């Protein structure tokens, strides 16, 4: 399918979780995560609307391995809403790790949406928490502003970017992932699975030089 990539007021850039804990030295560092910051800043300059999400977990969040006796990071458990990967403690509210990267152009962001703040449920997607029914309110925000297309970048390609892209499609937005403005965790082949599912679901994968 071909698209016109001329940007208009109906387009929004969504910067996913570009936070210290997902960059080098962070509690849940995505390999080479901070390398995307200059690319993301250039994109922010190009888009009429730029928004960001921020993982914002309370202490003792249920997705933390430390919250479950005998569990270690990157294992899984079953919760009421399905299988949950257990993570190192990360993006804890008010801690430096939860802060957006210092070099990110935050001044131009019109909205910073915090997610994952409910202790009993994780939230990968910018649109819904992991029960797939609790809304973050982002769909309403975008539709009130007559946004029709969303372009995603950030961390990590195979988790929060991926889940956000799939939900964006389901919410009726034309959806694009800017691959060179993302980085992946790639946990047991998760990147290849995410890329395949995104393409099969109608998400267009492109690079920043196509904009």
TrEMBL record:
Q: Which InterPro entries match?
A: Isochorismatase-like_dom, Isochorismatase-like_sf, Isochorismatase_Nicotinamidase
* Record pathway: Cofactor biosynthesis; nicotinate biosynthesis; nicotinate from nicotinamide: step 1/1
Query: What keywords tag this UniProt record?
Result: Hydrolase, Metal-binding, Pyridine nucleotide biosynthesis
Instruction: Report the EC number(s), separated by commas if there are several.
Output: 3.5.1.19
Record keyword DNA-binding present: no
Q: Return the CDD domains for the record.
A: nicotinamidase
Annotated Gene3D superfamilies: Isochorismatase-like
Write down the Pfam families for this protein, in alphabetical order: Isochorismatase
- Every Isochorismatase-like domain range: 12-210
Query: One biological-process term from Gene Ontology?
Result: pyridine nucleotide biosynthetic process
Q: Does the keyword Coiled coil apply?
A: no
Q: What class of enzyme is it?
A: hydrolase
**One GO molecular function term?**
nicotinamidase activity
- NCBIfam families per UniProt: PRK11609.1 (NF008623)
Query: What family does this belong to?
Result: Belongs to the isochorismatase family.
Q: Which PANTHER family match?
A: LD05707P (PTHR11080:SF2), PYRAZINAMIDASE/NICOTINAMIDASE (PTHR11080)
Q: What is this protein called?
A: Nicotinamidase
* Protein species of origin: Kiloniella litopenaei
